[in-house]
Fold these 2 entries.
Entry 1:
Amino acid sequence: MTAISKRALLGTGLAALATPALAQSNYPSRPITMVVPFAAGGPTDTVARLVAEAMGRELGQSVVVENVGGAGGTLGAARVAQARPDGYTLLLHHIGMATIPTLYRRLPYDAVNGFETIGLITAVPMTLVAKKNFPANTLQEAIALIRRERENLNYANAGIGAASHLCGLLLMSQVDAAMTTVPFRGTGPAMQELLAGRVDLMCDQTTNTTEQIRAGEIKVFAVTTPERVPALPNVPTAAEAGLPGLEVTIWHGLYAPKGTPRPVIDRVGQALRAALKDPKVVQRFADLGTTPVPEAQATPEFHRQFWQAEIARWRPLIQAAGQYAD
Ligand code: MLT
């Protein structure tokens, strides 16, 4: 639509017709909110702040991260599902978007159809970590201790549906021993308790554990990926350490409320794909054990089909465990 016709439309009182098109063509005309459904300082927050800063430069408007933690990431997801579909409220979430539809049976939003997909972002390995003085030095020693101490041990996570919950579900089912779970609003706060020795174990993403592992502030037993992580070359995979069933990689994606106009989705997607090529983002991701997804995966169509497949993959696993959030 040309500037003249916009003015004409506005002048003839047909502003209502021009407004959506005008808003879309001027998008973004003000700062954008990127909701992170976990507390600040955790792995999701780390990914979000790197991507938000780079997207802001590309869009010419600030992309402001807002942490809305709680209920395993569903409070933040609800906030976005219920927001105006105008492109000014986005959600950066992870694999939880694939498990929440099965784990939560009563939600105040549509966990699948309440969102437009924009693109995938990154896939992050997890690490099984323990407090510094945990009395085990290998995965097998840790498994033996978990089987012996069971509910006497505290396992930290970020609520049902969080990546740390999923990894814990896999771990405890593999070793057939349930520890006491201590939920936090994110694994950022949980890490503080692990560093203080007030919880015993956690399974968290390398974006939150790599620097603490390197500093010797926490113990690490394994990574949950098929291959070792270049940023942690001396850490064995769970399969190498004798627990091949402990395999989970935490993918992240960007979403907008259902009904967000496609031209806005495309503009945000363009900025996301540029951010994933930003040298600062690529380097920081590498330092923290991950890499951006290939450009073809940072698209609404690939993201949507991948997400649907992940929902189908996790549903039977969760149903077999019989653990639901509500
Ligand atoms: C976080 O960002 O706090 C984590 O992703 C929470 C989790 O999923 O374990």
Entry 2:
Amino acid sequence: MFEDKNPQRTPLSELGEFKLIDHLTTQFQIQKTSTVKGIGDDAAILDLSDDQTVITTDLLIEGVHFDLSYVPLKHLGYKAVMVNLSDVYAMNAEASQITVSIAVSNRFPLEALEELYAGIKTAADLYKVDLVGGDTTSSTSGLIISITALGTVASNKVVQRSGAKPNDLLVVSGDLGGAYMGLQVLEREKEVFKVNPQNQPDLSMYTYIIERQLKPEARKDVVELLDKLNVKPTSMIDISDGLSSEVIHLCKNSQVGMELYENKIPLDPQVISTCEEFNIDSTTVALNGGEDYELLMTIDQKDFPKIKGNPNLTVIGYVTEEAGGMHLVTRAETKVPIIAKGWNALNPQS
Ligand code: ADP
Ligand code: MG
């Protein structure tokens, strides 16, 4: 980390656009029968069956969404795919194809893009999605990546943000706050590195949370688990901006209120210990830290026996009438209104 491990630097101008695209995409194989034609024509051809199609896009800008001084390009490629797949899974859909568009400045050698695409390929292989196209252009300074993901879902299985109803249970997958605390550690080490570049940090105490930040996993497994358990959530959203902001999205879209229990919020021990070290409240981190890419959903009470005791799913609250409002019930049993403090795309530093 923090080091240029790949000393070879081939200028992009040596290849030209077509050779570059070829070079970067030649390793990718088509896995889905729904991909009729992938890269290589003016447009890809897909045959997406009788199910409904979901499509989602994310745009990532260097200096705004990622910092290459501590994000290895391979991880960036992987994460850029995850961010999109997570949105597909949040619809209860199966991801099938992606397109990847990049703008690069001449600051980036071919080897840097090879790293980026290695991460994209690892993600595509693991999650079984086909890379079917994209665009390549130049930028004056930083790196820009835009990924679009497509998926399919039977029309009776699609889950929107709008279906939550009073008395449903509020359920979250995995644990929260790790990605944010991983970022805090990386930011701190970056400052240390600036002062003393010889000093390679020992990050062994923070492996889980750094992994949560650098290599998040979209919860495809949770969508498959729900299907296996025969549970269709009444509403669902992925946690990109922090629990409180996603709770608000579900409530607004479903016109309901929610009670969320502080003592039920799942936290990894490493999140708790790092919060203590940084003197940050772990509940605040779970509520307002982003990028965990877990799934937040509501389920009907009748489905509770099906999920009860499952280590991947935690009941953290319940749905109320809209007039009830949105509250965190604290450990001291006081009710605090939930307000959006999540990461704001228009003002990321705040
Ligand atoms: P056009 O000029 O018609 O947009 P391009 O030369 O940009 O075509 O693209 C040629 C093929 O390569 C298309 O299939 C396109 O989708 C694909 N492609 C271009 N850039 C990328 C990229 N960065 N990643 C993956 N596929 C790409
Ligand atoms: Mg093009």
